[in-house]
Structure formats: C-alpha cells, structure tokens
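[Help] Beginner question about ligand-bound structures

Sorry if this is basic. My supervisor gave me a protein sequence and a SMILES string for adenosine-5'-triphosphate and asked me to "get the holo structure". I don't really know what that means in practice or what format the answer should be in. Inputs are pasted below exactly as I got them.
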Amino acid sequence: MTLLVDVRDLSIEFATARGAVHALNRVSLEVAKGRIIGIVGESGSGKSTLALALSRLLPANARIAAGDIVFDGVALGTQPERVLAALRGARIATVFQDPMTALNPLFTIGTHLGDVIRRRRPALAAGEVRARAIAMLTRVGIPDAARRLRQHPHEFSGGMRQRILIAMALLAEPDLLVADEPTTALDVTIERQIVDLFRTLKNDFAGSIVFVSHSLGTVAELCDEVVVMYAGTVVEQGPVARVFGRPCHPYTQALIRCETEEPGTGRRLRSIPGEVPDLVTPPPGCPFAPRCAEATPTCRQAPPPWRPQADGGAAACVLA
Ligand SMILES: Nc1ncnc2c1ncn2[C@@H]1O[C@H](COP(=O)(O)OP(=O)(O)OP(=O)(O)O)[C@@H](O)[C@H]1O
Ligand SMILES: [Mg+2]
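Answer (accepted):
No worries, everyone starts somewhere. Holo just means with the ligand present. The predicted complex, written as structure tokens, is below.
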C-alpha cells in the first residue's frame, strides 16, 4: 500500500475577534493510493477545515499551528503558492457543497470543461477536447451532452451542476479527489442519484478520494475507511466495516444511534444530547467528555490515549 497523503499532527487555528478558534487539533490521517476515505462528524467538527487543508485552500485567517500535510512526499505547509496552485490544477481536484460558486456564470459548460482538459493535455486538438468533454458529461449522467456544452451554469439544476463539477474534477485526472458534502445542497432524490454516481465512478477512477459527509450510510456505502471527527480531533478511524460494525468510541456509538431509527416508531433519533465545545477554549481532556455518559474524572483532565484496536483501526478513548 503506497501512501498518497500523510497528515501528521496537524493543528489549524482561525484568527477571530474572540481569539484563536482551534479548528483542528493534532489530526493525523493517511490516505493510501486508490483508497476512499470518508470523514464524518457533527457540524463544526472540522471536516471542511481538513478538506480545505488537503488542497491548501484555507481562508486567509487560517494558520497551520503545528504539523503538516505531506502529499506524495512533498510537505505542503512550506510550499509557495505557485507550487500549491500547480498541484491543485493537476493532482488534487475538489468538489464542494455549493456547485454554483465553483462555476463562472459568464462561461459555457463547454468552456469550463475545455479549460480543464487543455490544462491537463495542452497538445490536444479542439475536436478531441470537445469529444472528451461530451464523453465525460455523458458519463456523469448529463443527457444530450453536445447541446448542453453550449449552455451556461444557470441553465442547469443544482444536481446537474454538481454532476458538471464532478466531470471537471475527473477530467483533471487527479491523484486525489476531495469531495466536501457534495450532496448537502441537493434534495433527497437528487442526493441519492449523486451518491449512486460516485459509486459507479469509483470503480474506474484510479486515484484516491476523501469524501466528507454528514451521512454515515453514504460513507458506509462508498468508502473503504472512515475517520470520525469531533471538535477538531480524530476520535476514531479504521475500515468502514470495523468502525460501523463495532464502534469503540462512545461518540461514534452515539452518531450511529442518531442515524438509526427508533425501534417501532419509524422515527429517527434526533441528535446527541449536549453541545459541541467552544473551540476558542477547548476542554483540557477528551473533547467529548462533557457529553459522554461513560466519562470518568481522568477523561476530563488529559487528552485520551490513541488506542489501536486488535481488529483494525484505532480510537482515542480510555475505554477502547
Ligand atoms: N474562516 C473561519 N474563521 C473562523 N472560524 C472558522 C472559519 N471556518 C471555520 N471556522 C470554525 O472552525 C470550526 C470547524 O469548522 P468546519 O467548517 O471545518 O466544520 P465542519 O465539520 O465542516 O462543519 P459542517 O458540518 O457544518 O460543514 C468551527 O468551529 C467553525 O466555526
Ligand atoms: Mg463543512
């Protein structure tokens, strides 16, 4: 197994008027070539910060306080913007939540796709660029692709725009595709279709994928491994079957209960009681301790140990 991405002890802070927001706290994560990693966790747990860090698209008030992201042997933390921009264009592609912001309303879809293709393959003739664009649009499920190439982003529905972004990401032929909640802005039926599209595409996409999602079900369906985040830390990670089948961390267990229906009622359990800690002043011990039914006084004093599990994966919990 060759490593593509090696995130080591990464801490990221956002400067705000209230003080530094500790959005990521010593996060470590490995992405092997060709693997699909899911990232789950409640709102505010740091999933997007991690996704942005992978492509080094962090906002201006962000600072890497510790650690680094090593992409195919290159430590990104110290690279100049010129190198990062080149990586983003060619080796790392991203698909985000809101497809409209990533498309330029002034340009046709043909121009968007053509730009990506030519950046990757500058020597290609115009006819060949067009043929590739049509083939990719068809592959991501956009019918009548030849005509659609002449249309502008506003002529497409939200779901279709997300398909276009996925097409652009794949045409870049990246080594790493980062998708941050690519289905949250869409309604449930369309969401289902986009998840199905990812499922069919993953079979012939040779690169690695980091897939951020609120939905454990989607991650279980699409991913090889899962990383569970809470309050800027990784609380558990491992193969999908292990983590979802035998979760070790009380937080993972609580998340799974939230996605499961209440027996006999057909209703979903709402949410985990309590609130995510304020990341300006994170608690000194386990970040989940204030909400954890099994927490002991030790859990509130010092960060929990990282415990590898005999059956694969690892969890940051004294009980694991
Ligand atoms: N630009 C920013 N400036 C200040 N704080 C920020 C900024 N971006 C994110 N944060 C804070 O960092 C923390 C992590 O946010 P992040 O967006 O990574 O969470 P998330 O897991 O992606 O949540 P969601 O599920 O809602 O998308 C949150 O407390 C958030 O308020
Ligand atoms: Mg997010």
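A couple of things worth pointing out: Residues 3-91+174-316 form a domain with the Rossmann fold fold (CATH 3.40.50.300). The chain has two domains: 3-91+174-316, 99-173. Feel free to follow up in the thread.
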